């Protein structure tokens, strides 16, 4: 990364934050979006078309990050801080032990999958990448990611005896 790019990026931080706030209306999420944008911009600055305005390129990255975050939040559900609600903490160890055993069995079963299936499950289910992001990482079409993931989930379920 050259110094001019870094200086321009720093100059545009207030603009990025304003745009992020206009999208999400939450300061803490806006800060996260700006951070994601800067990380992606630094990572991919060599691929940027120099004919395109830096500001437009950064805004597009920020908007895509917002869309990704929104999609991810929709599938995550509502987060609850257990320290705010101690009554929801279980005193029964059986569910915890069962969850640990299932996690250990899942880890073991994943090692018995093909490398392709283990990789797609890791990217989407563990790392939380969207199908589009996984497709970009693997350099395959999004449909290929979806079909590989479906086959990997079925294979994992079969190995775990969950059919």
Automatic annotation (TrEMBL):
Q: Which UniProt keywords apply?
A: Sigma factor, Transcription, Transcription regulation
For this protein, what is any one GO molecular function term? sigma factor activity
Domain spans labelled RNA polymerase sigma factor 70 region 4 type: 107-156
Q: Which terms under GO biological process does the entry name?
A: DNA-templated transcription initiation
SUPFAM superfamilies xref list: Sigma2 domain of RNA polymerase sigma factors, Sigma3 and sigma4 domains of RNA polymerase sigma factors
Record-annotated RNA polymerase sigma-70 region domain positions: 11-74
Q: Which family does it belong to?
A: Belongs to the sigma-70 factor family. ECF subfamily.
Q: Supply the PANTHER family for this chain.
A: RNA POLYMERASE ECF-TYPE SIGMA FACTO, RNA POLYMERASE SIGMA FACTOR RFAY-RELATED
Alphabetical list of NCBIfam families matching this protein:
sigma70-ECF
Protein name, entry field: RNA polymerase sigma factor
Q: Which organism is it from?
A: Paracoccus hibiscisoli
Taxonomy-wise, where does this protein's organism fall, top ranks first?
Bacteria, Pseudomonadati, Pseudomonadota, Alphaproteobacteria, Rhodobacterales
